[in-house]
Amino acid sequence: MENWEHLKKTYGSGLMITWFVSAVVSPFASFENAKEVEEFFATHAMPCIARTLRQSLERVNINANWVQSVQNENELGDAVKELAYRKY
User: Fold this and answer.
1) Which of 2, 7, 56, 65 could anchor a disulfide with 25, C-beta 3.0 to 4.6 Å?
2) For each of the chain's 88 residues, which pLDDT tens digit applies?
3) What is residue 40's predicted lDDT score, i.e. its pLDDT?
4) For residues 2 and 36, is the Cβ–Cβ distance under 8 A?
5) Which string of b and e fits 22-35 if b means at least 16 CB within 10 Å?
6) Sign of torsion, CA 67 71 72 74?
7) Measured distance CA(14)–CA(44) in Å, rounded
8) How many CB atoms lie within 10 A of CB 21?
9) Backbone CA torsion sign across 24, 30, 55, 3
10) Residue 53, Cβ neighbours under 10 Å: how many?
11) Domain map of the chain by residue range?
12) What is the pTM of this model?
């Protein structure tokens, strides 16, 4: 994040910065993204977002595990086709 200092000045150390971090980090879905976020905040730490950051990284890891399990599911395509063409 090239504009981290600007974001800190804009959002301060309250609810808005924690919301921002959660909204930006939580949707990621790869272990590589989680590592990048961890590396960034290792040098840009803010105590007021520590809990939100942990929770957001936990969500990223959950998402990454889900993506990995879907990618490893060999019969998923067949199941989707069967459900898509099923007549109710």
Assistant:
1) 56
2) 678 889 889 988 889 999 999 999 999 999 999 999 999 999 998 999 999 999 999 999 999 999 998 888 878 778 788 888 887 6
3) 95
4) no
5) beebbebbeeebbe
6) positive
7) 16
8) 21
9) negative
10) 20
11) 11-85
12) 0.78
- Residue 69 amino acid letter: S
Gap between the Cα atoms of 13 and 20, Å rounded: 11
The answer for 13, left when phi > 0, alpha when psi is -120 to 50, beta otherwise, is alpha
Supply the DSSP symbol for 49: G
Number of H helices, E strands in the chain: 5, 0
Closest of 49, 53, 58 to residue 8, by C-alpha: 49
Tokens 């976020």 locate to 37
12: left (phi over 0), alpha (psi -120 to 50) or beta: left
